[in-house]
Structures are given as C-alpha cells and as structure tokens.
Design brief:
Blueprint lengths: L1 E4 L10 E4 L9 E10 L2 H7 L16 E9 L11 E5 L8 E5 L3 E3 L6 H5 L2 H14 L7 E4 L5 H12 L3 E6 L2 H9 L4 E4 L5 H8 L7 E4 L6 H5 L7 E4 L13 H6 L2 E4 L2 H7 L1 H16 L7 E6 L3 H9 L6 E5 L2
Parallel strand pairs: 8-9, 8-11, 9-10, 11-12, 12-13, 14-15
Antiparallel strand pairs: 1-2, 3-4, 3-6, 3-15, 4-5, 5-7
Helix pairs in contact: 3-4, 3-10, 9-10
C-alpha cells in the first residue's frame, strides 16, 4: 500500500508519500480499500502537532474517509468483505488502505457516493449534534452561521433549513455569500465589507438570532454574542481563525443566553446509541436530497500537499476531497 507518512509533525511540508506494509486487521477491525478521503481543519493541526490529540510519529494522517472492506478481523460479524463504509477517527485515511475499528464505521446505503461519504461524517455529524442536540433547534427559529461557506458551515445551512429554521449565513466574500444563498440561506452577511452587528440587527428586526453556529472564533465572537437573542444559544464548534476568544460572562447574564460546547467525537464515544441514530437520520436526509456535501475540489490522493495549500488560502467552499483512482 501507499500512504502519506508523518514522521516529523512540523507541518504538511514534512509529509512523504511512501510504500508501507499492507496491514492485517486484528480482532474487531476491518481493512478498507480507500476510495476517497476528505480534509478537515483538525488534520492540519495534527500534522503541525497543535491538536489536542497528538498521535505518536510516525503516523498516517487523515481522519475521514470512505471505501470498501476487503478483509475482516476475528469476531467481526456486523460487516463483511465488499461492504461500502465511511469512517471518522483513528487516522490513516490519506493512503490507499487503512485498518479501522468497526466502532468507527458507518455502513453506506446503496447510492451513497464515496466522495460524498468521505465528506459527510465529520461535518454533518458535528452539525447535527450541534444544532439538533446541543442547540435544541426548533422550527421557526433563526440560526446565524459563521464561516458559512466552509465544510461545517455549508452543512449547518442545510441541516438548519431541513429542520425548519430561518438561516442567516455570514461569510468573508460576496462569492461565498452567493454559494450560501444557493444552499438555501434566507439572508447573507459579508462580514469583510459590513458591520456584522448592524446587519444582524437589521435582518432580525432587532431581536438577534436564537442560535449562533460558530466554527470560526477569533474577533467575531464577542460582537456576535452581543447581538444574540434572549435565551440564545451560542454553539462553540471550533476556532478556524486561530484565536480562542474570551467572551465576558456578564453578557450571558444580560442576554439570558448560553455558551454551549460542541465536541462531536466525544459525544459519539460517550453516547453511541444517540450517535448511531443521528447518523441514520442524516443518511435518510441524504437519500431524500435534503442534504448533500458541498465539494470544493477533488484531487488525486497524491495531491494532499496541494489540498493543504488550498485549505490555507481560506478560499475553500465546502470540502476538499482526495480520491484513489
């Protein structure tokens, strides 16, 4: 097999495309021939040694992928050779083959495209857990999505609309805002050109959004929280801007509002039954055409470094996907 090996986690430039022994699955594991893998922001942090989970080098990065099972380990009865699956977690996705625990796998229904599946679990799993579980989104509520043209942002627009919400999508360019409108956003804010607080006030008749979905962090967080509605829920997804904001806690008191942490990976580990049900609901929505990953670019698996460079340009709309031909 071939894979991108990280022997020195100083950044994508240190990754090498290498021949490696094809692994054999152990008890409770399967070997997957990878058809597609997608890039997530934590993948960059991991190869820079900046993520909270730090794998021991050498390792193969790539946390989200889809493919076909070609071997099963001892005791595996719920999957068989030939099954199409997607997986998130454990690493190893940026290559031609990977061994994964069956607990990480999502069986793919017939008709679920591999490139869509490789861009599905993390973004849609995170967003379902955020909006539907942690945010308790109700039909008719208003959701403000920051970083709305990115992977989780585009998922948030689709899930919020499918749940009957009004969506205000905030992004950093007119082109990104246009994409958000195509995905169903009711209104958009280009926060590179306008005052986001003024725009929020105008678009909500001064009431503010019921939910803020924030994968960006940084200097937008406090002004947006100051604009949140009464009993609002501010969902902390991540910090793509790089800076972890410090929001004055007196604002939660004045707004009767909540700051809600969203850690989908830990949710999946601690609440496996709820996690499995969420994935089943999402797969049904995909089959019904209500949600579909937005794929910015498809590259060959050998183009991982180019994908990281594109991610760093902040011009990505949706997800970057790497495919094995």
């Amino acid at each position: 097999m071939k894979a991108w090996l990280c022997e020195n986690p100083i950044g994508p430039e240190a990754l090498e495309w290498k021949d490696l022994p094809t692994p054999e699955p152990k008890a409770g594991e399967v070997r997957i021939a990878i058809k597609a893998a997608s890039l997530n922001f934590p993948d960059l942090l991991i190869v820079q040694n900046k993520y909270q989970a730090k794998p021991t080098p050498p390792f193969v990065p790539g946390s989200e992928y889809a493919g076909v099972i070609e071997a099963v380990g001892e005791g595996v009865t719920n999957f068989k050779v030939g099954d199409a699956v997607a997986a998130f977690g454990g690493g190893g996705g940026f290559g031609t083959h990977v061994v994964a625990k069956t607990s990480l796998l999502m069986p793919l229904p017939k008709g679920f495209a591999f490139d869509d599946a490789a861009a599905f679990l993390c973004t849609y799993g995170t967003t379902w857990h955020a909006l539907m579980d942690r945010g308790a989104l109700k039909p008719g509520e208003t959701v403000l999505v920051l970083g709305a043209a990115g992977g989780v942002g585009t998922a948030a627009i689709q899930i919020a609309k499918a749940a009957g919400a009004k969506v205000i999508a905030a992004a950093s360019s007119d082109e990104k805002c246009a994409l958000c409108k195509e995905l169903g956003a009711d209104a958009t804010i280009n926060y590179a050109k306008s005052n986001i607080r003024d725009e929020i006030k105008a678009l909500t008749d001064g009431k503010g959004p019921d939910i803020v979905y924030d994968p960006v962090g940084g200097d937008l967080a406090e002004p947006v929280f100051r604009s949140i509605g009464w009993r609002g829920r501010y969902l902390v997804i991540g910090f793509a801007q790089g800076t972890i904001p410090a929001i004055p806690l007196n604002l939660t008191l004045l707004k009767g509002a909540s700051i809600v942490g969203v850690f989908w990976g830990e949710f999946a580990r601690r609440e496996p039954k709820n996690h499995v049900q969420a994935l089943a609901d999402l797969a049904a929505w995909y089959a019904q055409g209500k949600i579909k990953p937005v794929i910015d670019t498809r590259l060959p698996m050998t183009g991982l470094k180019d994908a990281f460079t594109r991610m760093g340009s902040r011009q990505v709309r949706g997800k970057l996907v790497l495919v094995n031909e």
